[in-house]
Amino acid sequence: MLRNTQYDHYFIVFDRANIAANDVAGNFSLTLIDVLDTFVVLDDRIGFERAVKNVIEWVSFDVNTKPQVFETTIRVLGGLLSGHIFANQTGQPFYLPWYRGELLALARDLGERLLPAFSTPTGLPFARV
What is the dihedral of CA 58, 107, 73, 32, to 10 degrees? Predict the structure, then answer.
């Protein structure tokens, strides 16, 4: 931790070498994706559009990590799918006319990467994949 004397607060510096902490979140901007539906709930169209653009520009699942399957499924896959539905659905306030299905493509990519976790002898998915 470093101390920020200007505001007298403590903050954590991201450590790329901390595999244990990074792998829990998948090391692929989990919070950025997870917040998409939060902007909808908060009725923040500007925040939603900015977050969609950031996800499209910055998120890639082509990383060497072993994320938690449950968290990744509900927060990332779910966030991408709900973001896609809102961005793509005409006639509602979060429709983005410039959007071309990029979140759905990311969701498919992630889903295909998660699929091996569900191919187990017991039928219960692996905790990490």
Answer: 30
